[in-house]
UniProtKB/TrEMBL annotation:
Belongs to the binding-protein-dependent transport system permease family. It comes from the Bacteria. This is Carbohydrate ABC transporter permease. Keywords: Cell membrane, Membrane, Transmembrane, Transmembrane helix, Transport. It comes from Bosea caraganae. It is a multi-pass membrane protein. GO terms for cellular component: plasma membrane. The chain crosses the membrane at residues 20-38, 85-109, 116-140, 152-170, 191-213, 252-270. Coiled coil: none annotated. It is found in: Cell membrane.
Length: 284
């Protein structure tokens, strides 16, 4: 009995030590982010005052100010923030429809060239975006979409990785569901909207989050496709605080803090579904 008790105590101790180690590691990794947020509330002249030493003053502002945040209204940052929200949400909603339909087709229908097309879809997810920037720009210029929301949204709607996630989920759904619905006279569109899509809620959340974050972090393509101030996105607005002459560190840190918080909120809200679906897709 004592041996069993001793074994359990050792296991509890090892588990506790692991948690302590992970918490300590997380705190170390979060220190730069804590310093970033703290510096966004410092006056411009005090941002780097305590950066040469490692103490509590490095991470706790001596004097709080909202001047850095208020000054963002003069730099066009609010417009860029709204632009990014519109682009990211539009891409997310359209992407759920397009990618789920494509994943359903790859999983359910047997058509010529299905495996080859699926390989192309997966290859598109692995290809560096920089490799297709020039031909993609030529296409949107041919359509007359340069410097428009369509140029920012439509090329990012179809996502090879999200299509693969939907395909993996729909493959795991028993075909008896579809066959029973077909016997009852349901169309494939009805089956997709009323049976398949409601079942794939974890994948919908995962795919939506992936596309939202991708668009929220987009920098290179928006800089090329829509350079005007009216279509500036948040990441480009952040970098405009840096120039050869000077860098507005207060605006840079405050705008970065806002951008990080907006991206963090949906991920924290749906992280359980996101991680669960990624894990199950990998196992399948």
């Amino acid at each position: 009995m004592s041996a069993v008790h001793g074994t359990m105590s050792r296991r509890v101790g090892i588990t506790g030590a692991r948690y302590v180690l992970l918490v300590a590691l997380a705190c170390v990794l979060l220190l730069p982010l804590v310093w970033l947020v703290a510096s966004s509330f410092r006056p411009a002249g005090e941002i780097f005052a305590n950066s040469h030493q490692f103490s509590w003053r490095t991470f706790v502002p001596g004097r709080l100010t909202f001047e850095n945040y208020l000054s963002l209204t003069e730099s066009g940052f609010p417009r860029a923030l709204l632009n990014s929200l519109f682009v990211a949400l539009s891409t997310m909603l359209l992407g759920v429809v397009v990618n789920s339909a494509a994943g359903f087709a790859f999983a359910v229908f047997d058509f010529p060239g299905r495996k080859f097309l699926l390989i192309l879809v997966l290859a598109s997810a692995m290809m560096p975006f920089e490799a297709i920037v020039i031909p993609l720009y030529q296409i949107i210029r041919w359509f007359g979409w340069v410097d428009s929301y369509r140029a920012l949204i439509l090329p990012e709607v179809a996502n090879g990785l999200v299509i693969f996630l939907f395909r993996q989920f729909f493959v795991g759904v028993p075909k008896e569901f579809y066959e029973a619905a077909r016997v009852d006279g349901a169309s494939w569109l009805h089956i997709f909207l009323r049976i398949a899509l409601p079942l794939s809620w974890p994948v919908v959340v995962t795919g939506a989050l992936m596309q939202f974050i991708t668009q929220w972090e987009a920098f290179f393509w928006p800089l090329v496709a829509a350079p005007s101030p009216d279509h500036t996105l948040v990441q480009i607005a952040i970098t405009r605080n840096i120039s050869f002459e000077e860098t507005s560190w207060g605006r840079l840190f405050s705008s970065t803090t806002i951008a990080c918080l907006v991206a963090l909120i949906p991920f924290l809200a749906f992280q359980k579904l996101y991680l669960r679906n990624i894990a199950s897709s990998g196992l399948k």
